[in-house]
Design brief:
The complex is a heterodimer. By secondary structure, chain A is an alpha+beta fold. Chain A is built from 13 helices and 12 strands. In chain A, the strands form 3 sheets. Chain A has a 5-stranded antiparallel sheet. A 4-stranded antiparallel sheet of chain A has the order 9-10-11-12, sandwiched between helices. The two termini of chain B are 21 Å apart. Chain B has a 3-stranded antiparallel sheet with strand order 4-3-5, covered by helices on one side. Chain B has a two-stranded antiparallel ribbon with strand order 1-2. The chains are: A alpha+beta, B alpha+beta.
Chain lengths: 331, 205
């Protein structure tokens, strides 16, 4: 451990406004790194796999923190901690799905520093990639996780494209299910994108997990009034109750009238390089009653086309069962 | 804890703790601890001069002036610059909980927090819990009475997490205590003792 006692030197920059942060990121370009809670970033630095020269820390920017009404919608600053998301009274009441998901992240200490923005911008979870091996994602020309002898129990079922790592976020599926909008600031202005479009797979760009380009900042996440107080379900299957990333997680939000599902949004994590919205499942549920029968059909639709690796076949029944439970819970 | 009264003296008549604290006290005020923070010698110097690197931290109610590098974690500052070795280094990756301290009364991992980011908030370590006369904090007292620790390495972190919980929830249920201590690994598996101890502490406070 001695060699890793100290991180390599970097310059810590602590801007007070979003504008200053954007200007700093622009000036430092490829040398720069955006630091939110630091729960993921510092490990990269300690392992000397990412070595930025300038770290732009967002903690001094008050505008990025807090949960506030925005018209009928609710806006969460990207630097709001996961503990704040978990405990906020309005959020718990109107968007309990997100509060539940936030509560299942890692440990209390990590949630106390870790932020919602950081949670959705986490890099891929693959120990080959994180060990610094020159895999596709790291700019090389091989995947160490997709070989006959590789340990790939935690890797993906869907959308593999050279890389088989998964999206590790617990809050991302909840945000997709709630039809959240992500606010991205860049030097040229601001744009708002639907949650499911914020995340990208390796087919789109193997070096990134989100649409954020160098110099971009995720500043807030907006939850629409349309999905407030919807019936919802969240479950995370993991090896341990604390710390662990999901093997599979599921987030569902539905609107049910007279015992019939009128609208449904369902998303899962841990099974693809990006959090996956299960549109086929959603469509199978419309007009159905949320019972055992609909659950069986939904579960089949959820795993259709899954392509397991050597050691992750178990994720297929796990995914099917979680989706089944989500549907049955709506009854 | 008064190190000079420590029971674990080495054959040279000086306890390990007293020796480490002595070395730190002698060196910290002047500069970084050079063997760990080799700064400029390796061309790793931070962009600031020494004067700009001086910070005033509020640790356990005391103002401490300390020379802090940009990339320095709070864990390093506490242990190697301020001599507060009660906060343990376990994994240095936010995966064990041994380095838990309170920042603004909230438990966080000192290994995963940069000192410069939190320097203006009050910091409480295990050394800051007992009253000035040496009277133990109720949580510490309860850990003693319930034989909480086995090997004791994770105990400072467990106690800090419990203190953090009791600051926001005076009468937690056993399930709430378990959730609050979920970020602290105990490799001896003394979890039940810890839960008993925190429940006892709620009666002592």
């Amino acid at each position: 451990m001695a060699a890793r006692d100290m991180m390599p030197a970097f310059e810590l920059l602590q801007p007070a406004t979003v504008e200053d942060a954007l200007a700093l990121l622009k000036r430092r370009d490829k040398d720069g790194w955006v630091l939110a809670g630091g729960m993921d970033s510092l490990d990269w630095f300690k392992d000397r796999i990412k070595r930025p020269k300038a770290v732009v820390e967002l903690g001094r920017i008050g505008a990025l923190r807090g949960i506030r009404a925005r018209g009928a919608d609710l806006e969460i600053g990207a630097m709001t901690t996961l503990t704040e998301v978990e405990r906020d009274a309005t959020l718990r009441e109107r968007y309990g799905l997100l509060a539940q998901a936030a509560r299942r992240v890692a440990t209390p200490q990590i949630r106390n520093r870790g932020t919602l923005g950081g949670n959705v911008c986490q890099d891929a979870r693959c120990w080959y990639y994180r060990a610094g091996l020159p895999c596709y994602r790291a700019g090389g020309n091989t995947c160490y996780a997709d070989t006959p002898t590789a340990i790939n129990r935690e890797h993906c079922l869907f959308e593999a494209d050279r890389c088989v790592a998964v999206s590790p976020s617990d809050t991302a599926p909840a945000l997709i299910a709630l039809d959240a909008r992500f606010v991205v600031r860049h030097a040229g202005g601001e744009k708002e994108v639907p949650a499911e479009e914020f995340f990208i797979g390796p087919k789109t760009d193997i070096t990134r997990m989100t649409i954020l380009q160098p110099g971009d900042l995720l500043t807030a996440i907006r939850l629409p009034a349309a999905w407030a107080n919807a019936k919802s379900y969240f479950e995370k299957a993991a090896d341990r109750n604390a710390w662990d990333f999901p093997l599979v997680n599921v987030a569902a939000a539905m609107k049910i009238e007279g015992g019939t599902i009128r609208q449904a949004r369902i998303a899962v994590g841990g099974v693809a390089p990006r959090p996956l919205r299960l549109k086929a499942v959603e469509e199978s549920l419309l007009g159905e009653q949320p019972g055992k029968e609909a659950a069986e059909v939904a579960a089949k639709a959820a795993v259709w086309g899954a392509r397991p690796l050597n050691h992750n076949q178990y994720k297929i029944p796990l995914l099917a069962n979680l989706v089944k439970r989500a549907v049955r819970s709506m009854a | 804890m008064d190190a000079s009264k420590g029971r674990s003296r080495s054959s040279h008549g000086l306890s390990r703790r007293a020796f480490i604290q002595g070395v730190i006290a002698a060196g910290a005020a002047v500069s970084s601890v050079n063997y760990l923070f080799r700064g400029n010698a390796l061309g790793q110097g931070a962009g600031r001069g020494v004067a700009e690197r001086l910070l005033t931290l509020t640790v356990n109610g005391q103002q401490r002036r300390v020379d802090v590098l940009d990339q320095e974690t709070l864990l390093m500052t506490l242990r190697y610059k301020l001599g507060l070795t009660g906060t343990k280094i376990g994994c240095d990756r936010g995966e064990c909980g041994n380095c838990t301290v309170l920042i603004d009364d909230v438990p966080v991992y000192a290994c995963s927090t940069l000192t410069r980011i939190v320097h203006d908030a009050p910091i409480t370590t295990i050394e800051g819990l007992a009253a000035p006369g040496g009277r133990l904090h109720p949580v510490q007292q309860a850990f003693v009475e319930e034989l909480g620790p086995q090997c004791g390495f994770c105990t400072p972190g467990q106690i800090i997490s419990a203190v953090g919980l009791l600051k926001v929830n005076r009468k937690p249920t056993r399930a709430e205590i378990a959730e609050a201590l979920a970020g602290n690994v105990c490799r001896c598996g003394a979890y039940d003792h810890y839960l008993n101890a925190v429940q006892r502490a709620t009666e002592l406070i």
